[in-house]
Amino acid sequence: MRTKEKRAAEDTKQPPVRRRDKERTRREILEIAFAEFAENGLAGGNTDAIAARANVTKRLIFYYFNTKEELFTAVLEMAYAKMRIAEQDLHLEALEPEAAIRRLAEFTFDFDQANPEYVRLVTIENIHRGRHIRASKKLKEMTRPIVSQIAAVLDRGVGAGVIRPGIDPVELHMSLNALCFFSVANRHTFEAQFAADMSSQKARAQRRVEIADLLWRYVRNDQRAAKSAASKS
């Protein structure tokens, strides 16, 4: 039989505190903030809405990220990291130069098509003149692996005589991203102006092939190709 003192002690016991998984909570906030900023921009992004959807307090958001600007920067870092991590699995070094160039083009096109929120977020950061990326050392360092991969493919192709010399890997990366990015970022305005189909599965598949062809034609050694064709005639 419980004594009165024992019952009183048990009644005053607090329920066990459920500890948050800090990394999981932070990740959930970032995922929700990503959707919010991609839809409404930095100025229109609502931290109250982010807190409500993440089932946390706004104070906790600022505990992790200090300010709305820092949260936006962290979202950018997460978004770019997703693409950079995927790029590591391309294994371009295992492919012949032409196959590597085409694989790079197809991957970039597919990623942008599958992640329109990423495209919108990058567009929003451009509205802010890239100030968050410029201030993030992490974002700057993320670009090195893919540029190195492209440079290695170009070097191998030049050595094999199938790619023309003098191509800047950063310029090539820029040209490819411009082509793929446009297909998502400008899809609606281009369709409205020219009555062009850029959204159907057939149109996307055709554009994917065209971009890969364009990129390869740009880098290939036409003199080598011409000599090869002449020798076969």
From TrEMBL:
This is TetR family transcriptional regulator. PROSITE patterns: HTH_TETR_2. Residues 23-83 form the HTH tetR-type domain. Signal peptide: none annotated. GO terms for molecular function: DNA binding. Keywords: DNA-binding. PANTHER family: HTH-TYPE TRANSCRIPTIONAL REPRESSOR SCO4008, TRANSCRIPTIONAL REPRESSOR. Residues 1-22 are annotated as: Disordered. The keyword Disulfide bond does not apply. InterPro entries: Homeodomain-like_sf (IPR009057), HTH-type_TetR-like_transc_reg (IPR050109), HTH_TetR (IPR001647), NicS_C (IPR041474), Tet_transcr_reg_TetR-rel_C_sf (IPR036271).
